């Protein structure tokens, strides 16, 4: 579903990604681990189209479509979703209104009519129950005054409502206590199916105890230097990265 070949990217004159190759098929969960500064967040930002980064070589294909030709909002409409490490606050825009606008933007891109009020409310009810989200949460301004756990839970709620093809979770576990980690992880696991895929970026094995990956990749100095199964994450937890 996602095919990244020989991807090079820089910010200013500094080259950060130095030849990334990655293939993700439908139904798979991939985890990317590695030390700070290795390029993990840069990779997620380049996939989603953050404009600070310049791609100098390589390709990113989603279902055969070249994402590098698309603006960030077009990539979102094509099925890319990213849960941010530090979600921003948007005062005056409720969670509910934000989600409805996002869903309708996706539908418009596919040539569909706006979601009906009844269908939207039914979907909200279903997904909020899945993620243990209280009703008053939906009327609050997006992320304003939210705790760290609430912000991350809201990101997964957006993922649940938008039903993307590829979900990128950029250090979703940072700042979460055990209960919040469990709720967020359970939500991700319930949303996985044979037609979508998840890319988890994390420093810690503990998240991968909840969201079990099919493949683990180590990203250092702008390259994927080792790939393996979930056992690789356990080895990294025990040994660190120096042995690589």
From TrEMBL:
Residues 2-244 form the ABC transporter domain. One of its GO terms (molecular function) is ATP binding. InterPro entries: AAA+_ATPase, ABC_transporter-like_ATP-bd, FeS-cluster_ATPase_SufC, P-loop_NTPase. Keywords: ATP-binding, Nucleotide-binding. Signal peptide: none annotated. This is Fe-S cluster assembly ATP-binding protein. It comes from the Bacteria. Belongs to the ABC transporter superfamily. Ycf16 family. Pfam families: ABC_tran (PF00005). It comes from Apibacter mensalis.
């Amino acid at each position: 579903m996602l095919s990244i070949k020989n991807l090079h990217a820089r910010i200013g004159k500094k080259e950060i990604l130095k030849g990334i190759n990655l293939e993700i098929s439908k139904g798979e969960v991939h985890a990317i681990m590695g030390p700070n500064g290795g390029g993990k967040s840069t990779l997620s930002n380049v996939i989603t189209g953050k404009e600070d980064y310049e791609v100098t070589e390589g390709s990113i294909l989603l279902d055969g479509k070249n994402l590098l030709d698309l603006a960030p909002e077009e990539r979102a409409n094509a099925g890319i979703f990213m849960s941010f490490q530090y979600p921003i606050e948007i005062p005056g825009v409720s969670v509910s209104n934000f989600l409805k606008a996002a869903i309708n933007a996706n539908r418009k891109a596919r040539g569909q009519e706006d979601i009906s009020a009844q269908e939207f409310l039914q979907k909200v009810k279903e997904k909020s129950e899945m993620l243990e989200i209280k009703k008053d949460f939906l009327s609050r301004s997006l992320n304003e005054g939210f705790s760290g756990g609430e912000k991350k839970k809201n990101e997964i709620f957006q993922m649940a409502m938008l039903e993307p093809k590829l979900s990128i979770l950029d250090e979703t576990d940072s700042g979460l206590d055990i209960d919040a980690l469990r709720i967020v992880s359970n939500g991700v696991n319930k949303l996985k199916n044979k037609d979508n895929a998840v890319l988890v970026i994390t420093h810690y094995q503990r998240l991968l105890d909840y969201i079990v990956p099919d493949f683990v990749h180590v990203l250092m100095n702008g390259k994927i230097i080792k790939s393996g199964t979930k056992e690789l994450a356990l080895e990294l937890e025990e040994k660190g990265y120096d042995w690589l």
